[in-house]
Amino acid sequence: xxxxxxxxxxxxxxxxxxxxxxxxxxxxxxxxxxxxxxxxxxxxxxxxxxxxxxxxxxxxxxxxxxxxxxxxxxxxxxxxxxxxxxxxxxxxxxxxxxxxxxxxxxxxxxxxxxxxxxxxxxxxxxxxxxxxxxxxxxxxxxxxxxxxxxxxxxxxxxxxxxxxxxxxxxxxxxxxxxxxxxxxxxxxxxxxxxxxxxxxxxxxxxxxxxxxxxxxxxxxxxxxxxxxxxxxxxxxxxxxxxxxxxxxxxxxxxxx
Amino acid sequence: xxxxxxxxxxxxxxxxxxxxxxxxxxxxxxxxxxxxxxxxxxxxxxxxxxxxxxxxxxxxxxxxxxxxxxxxxxxxxxxxxxxxxxxxxxxxxxxxxxxxxxxxxxxxxxxxxxxxxxxxxxxxxxxxxxxxxxxxxxxxxxxxxxxxxxxxxxxxxxxxxxxxxxxxxxxxxxxxxxxxxxxxxxxxxxxxxxxxxxxxxxxxxxxxxxxxxxxxxxxxxxxxxxxxxxxxxxxxxxxxxxxxxxxxxxxxxxxxxxxxxxxxxxxxxxxxxxxxxxxxxxxxxxxxxxxxxxxxxxxxxxxxxxxxxxxxxxxxxxxxxxxxxxxxxxxxxxxxxxxxxxxxxxxxxxxxxxxxxxxxxxxxxxxxxxxxxxxxxxxxxxxxxxxxxxxxxxxxxxxxxxxxxxxxxxxx
Lengths: 256, 412
Fold this sequence. Notes:
- The structure holds 2 protein chains of 2 kinds.
- By secondary structure, chain A is an alpha+beta fold.
- Helix content of chain A is about 50%, strand content about 25%.
- Chain A has helices at about 5-15, 20-25, 30-35, 80-85, 105-120, 125-130, 130-155, 155-165, 210-215, 220-225, 235-255, and strands at about 40-45, 50-55, 60-65, 70-75, 95-100, 170-175, 180-185, 190-195, 200-205, 230-235.
- Chain A has a 5-stranded mixed β-sheet with strand order 3-2-1-4-5. A 5-stranded mixed β-sheet of chain A has the order 8-7-6-9-10.
- Chain B is an alpha/beta fold.
- Chain B has helices at about 5-20, 75-85, 95-110, 120-135, 180-185, 215-225, 245-250, 280-285, 295-310, 315-335, 360-370, 390-410; strands spanning about 45, 50, 55-60, 115-120, 140-145, 170-175, 190-195, 230-235, 255-260, 270-275, 340, 350, 375.
- In chain B, the strands form 3 sheets. A 7-stranded mixed β-sheet of chain B has the order 4-10-9-8-7-5-6, with helices on both faces.
- In chain B, helix 3 runs parallel beside helix 9, helix 5 (about 180-185) packs parallel to helix 6 and helix 10 (about 315-335) runs parallel beside helix 12.
- Chain B starts with 6 loop residues before the first helix and ends with a helix.
- The interface between A and B is medium-sized, with 22 and 24 residues.
């Protein structure tokens, strides 16, 4: 029996939250907020995922694990509590067991998550702006790659598929010079990373950012796009086929 | 010879996508090859060649994924089928040709005492497992990891539309790994109805594996000892290794054997044969389908089998296959590549020795297809009686050009 709440919490903490790296790099308000900030904020679910965000030198770096001595540590007693917080379903108060006196940092962090939400769920007007559209699509791509880990490692419906999938790197690259992500699949684990891969086992190349947006929002028939060469697979196609099954499971949990 | 245009193929594909999910269903979808380099549709075939909607001509080393063994449009087979078709088909009773067909198969296949007929390989592989369950009163089915026995829920390599219970009683072991097999036999002692295996291991994206010395002997010994029924899935390999069945080629003695693909030289037909001990149960396990008893494919099958015997087909195909096999290794070597060929000469699989991700093979295959030679990048190929030495020479000439392009892009 799959633990829906647990998998969702992995998606939120290990796929969505790490994209604050992107937000801080892109958004001027976020940059203003983190300027001069030297702080690490950790979120941890009991028996579930953890993420630690380090803000330093105007940048944000995410680690998908707990670290020693974070500035602020938030603990959620169950996956459901963290999910409620992200889905804004009722009042959730995590246990702040470290750094509770750093209220300013917590406020800043809340503000950053609000900025991120704006980009993850943009209005139609925002999408008319080409720059925002491209950034939103880039963000979606990153979330999808990181969610591959969340779902592929924890959803019992696909963990068997991941186990049987050949080891190696799958790259997803927007052509000709768009964003790229890749995931390293090693036995039962999936490790996401940003940027192109040097020697991928399989590379999925998507013709343009518009097509990428359509693909990530379910507007594209994948097989049709492959046949018409709008999406190309180079390398171990079987690996991409299996990972596509994992990707499709993501939407069963959460709209990202 | 130059790069072919595929404009019409692509136009047809775009049109197909409007009414057919994905445009083309299953393993013939362009995504399984290199889209944009291979034809998407075939308009007509003759001998070992076919033509696409753009008028491009191809030497087909895939033989329609196996069914073509005497050549497309084979006059002998087509005449027998046409003669039968004259009388009408699909009537409310089977034709007497079904008896002639069963007699032909029983006479041809070693160890066969009876025969049933269906349409596709999965019809018979699935049914044989049910006969084995009925015969033994046991639930478990053993199969080899990665083996293909059809797209039914119990064995499909696909992922959609399945529930956990579909595979509850299906367990997998590794080819040529006796420990892996005996472990399952011990774990499910007294519960295993059958083991279903292909005569040798032919998977996609990987070298084919012949049985290791003693492999079939051991499987057979353990199965006899434990009362496990042996089903030989000869759907892909049959009639290309030994006309009496691939179990003769590899020297084992299955209880039931499944056939399809080459059995009727592209006419839709499958069959299972078995030993007398299973005949009663075979009659009790429902096996039926509206088109199972159509007469035209059976007439084609009888003509195909007789023609294969007359032509001493296996020996011929082995010779042609070896020419292609050796030629590719030699041409590859000339360009600095180590070419690895695996499987039997009549059902070869090729890859570049220095890679695991098929990038070179994909480019090689794509460039060959653009020059009129269909080598599949990920699947084994098939040799037919319609392929000639000249076809091999022409294909090797194209391969030479394709190797040069691969070298240019990747180095040796």
